[in-house]
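Problem statement: downstream parser choked on a complex file, so we are re-checking the raw output for the beta-D-glucopyranose run. The parser issue turned out to be on our end (a line-ending mismatch), but while we're here, posting the original submission so the record is complete.
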Amino acid sequence: MQIFGVDIGGSGIKGAPVDLDRGDLAEERCKVLTPHPATPESVADGVRQVVEHFGWTGPVGLTFPGVVTGGAMIRTAANVDKSWIDTDARALFSERLGGLPVTVVNDADAAGVAEAHFGAGRGRKGTVVLLTFGTGIGSAVFTDGVLVPNTELGHLELDGHDAEKRASSKVKEDHDLSWEHWGHRVRKYLAHVEMLFSPELFIIGGGVSRKAHKFLPYLEDIRAEIVPAQLQNNAGIVGAAMRAAETDRGE
Ligand code: BGC
């Protein structure tokens, strides 16, 4: 079975039909640049371009980098245009896509769902926490494979600051932090999350997951196992499609 997945990120809007049996893209993905300012109207136009590229006419799952309730309502917009707050994104995208059924899900939750089923968290019992390090820090918390949505652990307080303002990979780049310096911040952050959730496993997602060997050495006194995400760039697209499939089945 195939469902269309779209990942809305700070730099690009990427999408492709997803093969849900394999947990992978069924065709090469299409990407358009995220418009700036990334308002609901301009992003919806980008999404339409991506979906129309494939002539897709079935259900569509989309990620969003903020709290999303009920597969539809945007509640926060930490790193995107504030006009998203209280937008009914399902209605907006569905209307722009000529009435196709649409489900919207938090970006880290989508990546987590894909990793939990097809990647680093496959078959893992107990508490698993996926953290994505990018412009912000996203989180997805699972217990025995079941997601607790919208956990927003990137906004925990760390050293008197919003954690993502201390330990995201954007902060590493903006302040030119060494892997060691940034690794120590991430260690402190993981220790805090570990204190709250006692997970068996941390999955580290986002672009940095490809360079795990550079920072894993600084995380050694964390009790939980720590592994990089496996699906990398496509986790959001795959996870969004998986959530849309669940909605389509009425789950
Ligand atoms: C947002 C989260 C999002 C994360 C990663 C945070 O600033 O609040 O909802 O998952 O960034 O994009």
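For whoever reads this later: The longest helix spans residues 179-197.
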